[in-house]
Amino acid sequence: MAKIYAELARIQQGLKAPKNLYNKFGNYYYRNAEGILEAVKPMLNGLAIIISDEPVLIGERFYIKATVTLTDGSECVSTVAYAREDETKKGMDGCQITGACSSYARKYALNALLMIDDNKDSDDDQLSPKNPENSRETKPSPRQSAPASVSTQGSVPAPQAAAPEPPKQETPNDYIKRWIKTIGEQHPGFNFLATRKALIEGGVVKEIPSATMNMDQAKELINAIVDNLKKAG
Predict the structure, then answer these.
(1) What is the pLDDT of residues 81-110, one digit of tens each?
(2) Cβ pair 31, 17 in contact under 8 A
(3) Which of 35, 74, 183, 189 lies at 20 to 30 Å from 156 by C-alpha?
(4) Which tens digits make up the pLDDT trace of 150-176?
(5) How many domains does the chain have?
(6) What's the confidence (pLDDT) of residue 85?
(7) Are residues 104 and 197 in the same domain?
(8) Domain interval for residue 142
(9) For residues 82 and 64, is the Cβ–Cβ distance under 8 A?
(10) Which of 79, 114, 149 finishes a domain?
(11) Separation CA 94–CA 193 (nearest Å)
(12) Is the N-terminal amide bond of 209 cis, ω within 30° of 0?
């Protein structure tokens, strides 16, 4: 196995896969699986990269498991990544949902194998309600969230300076709905009810019905959800 690991180290050290795609909705640059493969192909020197997908049932939800393998024909090294299929997504049929989920999982399996750092993609602070770019209605590139994790460190401060200011007549419930739409467009796998339930059970937020929340409580909930997505990314 020493040879294949030496080849992998060579590729990891020399690979340059810039974020050459731009998302106007979130105001960030990003790379996709196709861009990573385009950058790595000239470095293979007789090696091959094999990518495969398979659906797996974890609990009551289906995930797409992507496996990326680097091989020289006799030795190989592999990494895997998972992305959850959403039950429904507005504007996408079942095949498109699976395809977006597959692309997301493949990208992060490639990231793991090739040591690519994606910690500044859209699941980072570009998604924050404090980012004024997130008020735009530009259609984002499909993305899929990784399995959610819940922080037990407490919620982050409410977004008092969210810009631009929402309409005067916006209620806390309207605010929550607006951000559910925004986060859902950035993360097609996002499930508001399941995430909120997990945050409540983890003691991150209090169980307050959305219809009776004040604006500070609504902002606290949204910030806790965003913080959770950042940790899950």
Answers:
(1) 998 866 655 556 667 777 888 888 899 899
(2) yes
(3) 189
(4) 333 333 344 443 444 544 567 888 888
(5) 2
(6) 67
(7) no
(8) 125-232
(9) yes
(10) 114
(11) 21
(12) no
